[in-house]
Amino acid sequence: MRDAMKRYYITTPIYYVNSAPHIGTALTTIVADACARFHKRRGQEVYFLTGTDENAPKVHRVAQERGVPTQQFVDEMAEVFERTWRALHIEYDVFIRTTEARHKRVVSEVFRRLREQGDIYKGSYQGWYCISCETFFASSKVGEAKTCPDCGKPLEWRDEPCYYFRLSAYESRLKEHLLAHPSFIQPEVRLNETLGFLNEGLQDVAVSRTGSEWGVPVPDDPDSGVVYVWFDALLNYLTATGWLERGEAYLDIWPPDLQLMGKDILPRFHATIWPAMLMALGLPLPKRLYGHGWWIVNKQKMSKSLGNVYAPLEVAGSLAQASGCELPYAIDAFRYYLLREMPTDADAEFSLEGFEARYNGDLANDLGNLLHRTLSMMHRYFEGRVPAGARLDAGLADLFAQQAAQVTEAFEAVDFPRGLREAWQIISAVNRYYDEQAPWTLMKQGHSERAGQVLYAGLIATRLLCGLIEPVMPQVARAIAHQLNLDTVPCWSDALVMNALPTGHSLRTPKPIFPRLQASHSTDTPVRTSGSDKTVQATSTTAMQDMITIDDFKRLQIRIATVKAAEPVPKSTKLLKLTLDVGGEERTIVAGIAEDYTPEQIVGKQIPVLVNLQPALIRGIVSEGMMLAADVDGKAVLLHPDREVPSGSVVR
Ligand code: MSP
């Protein structure tokens, strides 16, 4: 009974909020979203959890360094995470924050229960501690330099009373569980890493910390400080189900079906401490843990000091500006790139060049072009309607079904690179079929019925792909469904129905979803971020000698706007957010003039604004246009009309 009602429960790690989301944290979240959407499309009820890990001492430390009260800091950062995930089309069901009272109650209750039953006991700790990793290390693991074996930062000596979780008592049960359930940890390389870790022997874990008041106080013993942040954070997965609050009803969700994370936090935390805590509580274990590899940049780990940390929305926004692709589709293209190149077993290199190559190749040339050429020919030859008697050739129907089965299997295994490769085989097959059958020649020769049959394969293929790619590119799937004139994106089983478009079904006029990027813009488009004030900028590659026609110029809509309000963009020294009146219409733009003008100096001014520029997300703000100013040695100088003019006046 319970199992029938149970929702498919997917989790991401909860993210530390000491820095903004980047391509690493976006990877886990996008993978989770794609898995959630995949299961939903297959008719399962899904419960998708993500959130923020706010009780860590390092979060507290960063807030103090910035001179902001810690609660205010975590509130602001949690909002940045939520906003970023929504902008990346991530549809989670619950966003949990570890500073929520309901979570703190769960942490205290678990600590108390395990202490009462003897799984947590009081001792004392003498040894080395890494503040950055929030981890104690035995002296045997620490070299002469006294640096952290994981992150390399200097360790601190600690000598204090402390509570321990009796992890060692669970060593053999954990090993037995892993061996009896080989699919508990995936991919296989992570299972082997975990077995290696267990074979080194488990020590009890220190689960309280003194020296900081930020966190969940050790229950009934305030002098012992706060609960260790990992012991606290892992319990978020339980809090979110309503355990403690909903009686038995939490079992509608519990246990997790799929917990996703990076390889760094799998063997020790998610595959050892976490299941041991659940064993101690007598609760069922998660069914599957999946640990992906890491993005590296120029063969190095991403780090702020190397300046190679990329912000997802800026990468996508930059592509949108350079290519003319609408922002929601550029964001989907970014999701596609992350999943197509996703590090599974090994680490993978992230690069803007790689992203552009996938965009132009897989999306503009393959998927976009197949849809566009098929619809164009349907309009040219058949007035945009499915001709009578069109049916898919049996060979192709088999091939489509086989490919779809491969995609299903790969997505189920969280192997998105393989799944997408298999899906793209459908595109190659139809392109080959078009080349062999040449519907354009068939038309010239008067074989219109056969030409209709051939083009029908392109329609069915794009309809099928529309369903299969929705987990990866939800907005693009919607755009394809719209052009095919379908009411909705077909769900998984419906997408697999061949010959699903009836005679006479009318198709919409095609509109390119992925305009081609003309030249690489990655070298002069600053998108590296987090902490840097560089934001999405237009490419500067247009050569001065390139002449444009008057028609090109007429495509620019420049109007005079009156600045109604101006405010600095948080954490940026260069940007101002401007609220404009453009002839009765209010618009927001982000302008890089904060170093040259204060908000007071610009409010009330009239300025020219390019109003038909693709919107771009800059620092989480949707900028709907670009102000024009003179550039004098890199400084902006405002331009004004000679006398006051009505807001919205056209500049030509
Ligand atoms: N707060 C802990 C998780 C607690 S879960 C109970 C944490 N947070 S984190 O923000 O540091 O990392 C979150 C996730 O991002 C991890 O799964 C980590 O592997 C992933 N990534 C961080 N940088 C990454 C890359 N460069 N590449 C891929 N993923 C990486 O750990």
Give a description of the structure:
Among the domains are: 346-528, Isoleucyl-tRNA Synthetase, Domain 1; 556-638, Beta Barrel (OB fold (Dihydrolipoamide Acetyltransferase, E2P)). The protein has a six-stranded parallel beta sheet with strand order 3-2-1-11-12-7, sandwiched between helices. Strands 16, 17, 18, 19, 22 and 25 form a six-stranded antiparallel beta sheet that branches. The longest helix is centred in the middle third of the chain and has 31 residues, at 352-382. By secondary structure, it is α/β, with parallel strands linked by helices. α13 (352-382) packs parallel to α15, α14 (394-412) runs antiparallel to α15 and α15 runs antiparallel to α17 (448-469). β11 (258-262), α10 and β12 form a beta-alpha-beta unit. 5'-O-[(L-methionyl)-sulphamoyl]adenosine binds next to β1, α2, α8 and β11.
Q: Which secondary structure elements does this structure contain, and how are they paired or packed?
A:
Layout: H1 2-5, E1 8-16, H2 23-41, E2 46-53, H3 57-65, H4 70-87, E3 94-97, H5 101-116, E4 120-130, E5 135-137, E6 156-165, H6 171-180, E7 185-186, H7 188-199, E8 205-206, E9 208-209, E10 226-227, H8 229-234, H9 236-239, E11 258-262, H10 266-281, E12 289-292, E13 295-297, E14 300-301, H11 312-323, H12 327-340, E15 348-349, H13 352-382, H14 394-412, H15 416-437, H16 439-444, H17 448-469, H18 474-483, H19 492-495, H20 550-554, E16 558-568, E17 576-582, E18 585-591, H21 599-602, E19 606-610, E20 616-618, E21 621-623, E22 626-627, E23 629-632, E24 635-638, E25 650-651
Parallel strand pairs: 1-2, 1-11, 2-3, 7-12, 11-12, 13-15
Antiparallel strand pairs: 4-5, 4-6, 6-8, 9-10, 13-14, 16-17, 16-19, 16-25, 17-18, 19-22, 20-21, 23-24
Helix pairs in contact: 7-10, 11-12, 12-13, 13-15, 13-17, 14-15, 14-17, 15-17, 17-18
